[in-house]
């Protein structure tokens, strides 16, 4: 394994997290986490969706306040955490998505981010030159590649003289050459004594770049080791242990109707984040698409639905579908429940009735006026099956629990009576009871003949609900599991890759 060549002795840690707890709504998302990073060390932080990685990094950078525990930076406990305090303590985070002003120049973006610190053009150019990657200071940030934009975020951290750098999933949109350049830059920074937390799900990167690795699962630290003392299999099993799988409902395991044509076919579809994808889903089955975050699953769904451009062929109910837009998709019997329900799934300021009927306005209006009795009928059709609270039809969706918000998002997608529905992370952020309702609904939909595409990074969910499974990794479909081969181990190992592939 390649290791960071920096050799460092145990000195005063750059940062120490001691017994950190954080809960939302009474549900703990961090459970007594202990972690540190040494000067000159690159420390990997890995974990599945919902493991607590983002919350931990937000606590260190002062974005969220922990309920208990200590955060020590440079040997001093930080009592009043805030982003300003983090910057004052030489902590800087390079986000997964660069946060630049696209219409401003590179120089303007850098200088505006320094909190009043006066830095001249020559100094900015010196830092960029030191990273051995030429960038025009007068170029508009929006015209740069993603890798160059991330470089600008690194430049910001260097100019702030960061002693702790947090890098969150930096390689999702980079080419192999750009990844090599980024690694060179991070190693150079570590050689100066900077401590780096490196958040990633890519096993090859962890073993190529990082000195130590910590695994979080369900908010708790379950493994911490030097990278030369563990294997890929050790990390994957720590993230997704072999658990006893619940038997899937027989209806969700039912095979496609004999002789039926696919409700949805995709042939050679290529778009942002994915390449040359083929798939088909039949009426009455649940096609699971498994993979870790950043593998192109959501981008694939949005391209099929018409939210993103792409090349290739999409066939709905036997007819090619070329003029893809969300409105056309609904008209042709394809619905989509997006991953981010707050941003794209529901109208938070609208009522349950408003949301459920919003996709069928042409059916409930006359002369441009909404017919109230039809408006409520749409909602009543789904209220019982989704276990929506009695008497809650007029409540604003923003005031509902996460589980009920997700149910409303589902009802909104089901109102047009689609033939195919794509569910993207349908149980993310919902409680156990709401999850059971959603799982039951998925089985009901398949039993009624709907073709369901289930996208999830929860491998147990994929195993429990899917008739067949496609596994995606690095933007490609890398595996196909028929019903008899669907196991947690098969899905997990396919999503992360074999040891030979990442060594």
TrEMBL record:
InterPro entries reported for this sequence: AAA+_ATPase, ABC_carbohydrate_import_ATPase, ABC_transporter-like_ATP-bd, ABC_transporter-like_CS, P-loop_NTPase
PROSITE patterns (UniProt xref): ABC_TRANSPORTER_1, ABC_TRANSPORTER_2
Gene3D superfamilies attached to this UniProt entry: P-loop containing nucleotide triphosphate hydrolases
Catalytic activity: ATP + H2O + (2R,4S)-2-methyl-2,3,3,4-tetrahydroxytetrahydrofuran-[AI-2-binding protein]Side 1 = ADP + phosphate + (2R,4S)-2-methyl-2,3,3,4-tetrahydroxytetrahydrofuranSide 2 + [AI-2-binding protein]Side 1
GO function term, MF aspect, one: ATP hydrolysis activity
EC number: 7.6.2.13
Bilayer topology term: Peripheral membrane protein
Gene Ontology terms: cellular component: plasma membrane
Keywords associated with the record: ATP-binding, Nucleotide-binding
Main location: membrane
Similarity comment: family membership: Belongs to the ABC transporter superfamily. AI-2 autoinducer porter (TC 3.A.1.2.8) family.
Subunit structure, as described in the record: The complex is composed of two ATP-binding proteins (LsrA), two transmembrane proteins (LsrC and LsrD) and a solute-binding protein (LsrB).
Name of the protein this chain belongs to: Autoinducer 2 import ATP-binding protein LsrA
């Amino acid at each position: 394994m390649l290791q960071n060549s920096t050799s460092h002795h145990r000195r005063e840690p750059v940062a120490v997290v001691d017994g950190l707890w954080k809960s939302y709504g009474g549900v703990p998302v961090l459970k007594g986490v202990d972690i540190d990073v040494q000067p000159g060390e690159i420390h990997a932080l890995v974990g599945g969706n919902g493991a607590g990685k983002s919350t931990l990094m937000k606590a260190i950078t002062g974005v969220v306040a922990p309920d208990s525990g200590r955060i020590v930076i440079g040997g001093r406990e930080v009592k009043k955490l805030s982003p300003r305090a983090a910057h004052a303590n030489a902590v800087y985070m390079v986000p997964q998505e660069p946060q630049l002003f696209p219409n401003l120049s590179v120089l303007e973006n850098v200088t505006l981010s320094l909190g009043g610190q006066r830095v001249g053009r020559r100094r900015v150019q010196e830092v960029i030159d030191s990273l051995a990657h030429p960038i025009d200071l007068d170029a508009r940030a929006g015209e740069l590649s993603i890798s160059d934009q991330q470089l600008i975020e690194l430049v910001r951290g260097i100019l702030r003289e960061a002693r702790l750098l947090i890098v969150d999933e930096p390689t999702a949109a980079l080419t192999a050459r750009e990844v090599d350049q980024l690694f060179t830059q991070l190693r150079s920074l570590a050689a100066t004594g900077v401590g780096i937390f490196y958040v990633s799900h890519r096993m090859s990167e962890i073993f190529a770049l990082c000195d130590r690795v910590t695994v979080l699962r369900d908010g708790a630290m379950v493994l911490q080791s030097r990278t030369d003392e563990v294997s890929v299999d050790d990390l994957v099993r720590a993230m997704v242990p072999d658990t006893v799988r619940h038997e899937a409902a027989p209806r969700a395991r039912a095979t496609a109707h004999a002789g039926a044509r696919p409700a949805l076919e995709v042939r050679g579809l290529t778009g942002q984040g994915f390449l040359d994808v083929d798939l088909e889903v039949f009426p009455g089955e649940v096609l699971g698409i498994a993979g870790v975050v950043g593998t192109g699953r959501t981008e694939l769904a949005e391209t099929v639905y018409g939210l993103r451009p792409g090349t290739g062929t999409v066939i709905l109910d036997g007819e090619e579908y070329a003029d893809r837009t969300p409105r056309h998709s609904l008209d042709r019997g394809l619905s989509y429940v997006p991953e981010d329900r707050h941003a794209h799934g529901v109208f938070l300021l609208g009522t349950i009735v408003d949301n459920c009927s919003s996709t069928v306005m042409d059916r409930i209006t006359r002369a441009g006026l909404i017919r109230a009795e039809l408006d409520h009928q749409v909602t009543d059709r789904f209220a019982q099956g989704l276990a929506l609270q009695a008497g809650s039809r007029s409540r604003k969706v923003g005031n509902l629990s996460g589980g009920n918000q997700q149910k409303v998002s589902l009802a909104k997608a089901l109102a047009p009576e689609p033939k195919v529905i794509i569910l993207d992370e349908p149980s993310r952020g919902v409680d156990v009871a709401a999850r059971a309702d959603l799982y039951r609904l998925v089985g009901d939909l398949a039993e009624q003949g709907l073709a369901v595409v289930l996208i999830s990074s929860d491998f147990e969910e994929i195993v429990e609900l899917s008739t067949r499974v496609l596994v995606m990794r690095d933007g490609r479909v890398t595996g196909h599991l028929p019903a008899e081969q669907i196991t947690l181990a098969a899905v997990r190992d396919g999503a992360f890759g074999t040891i030979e592939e990442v060594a």
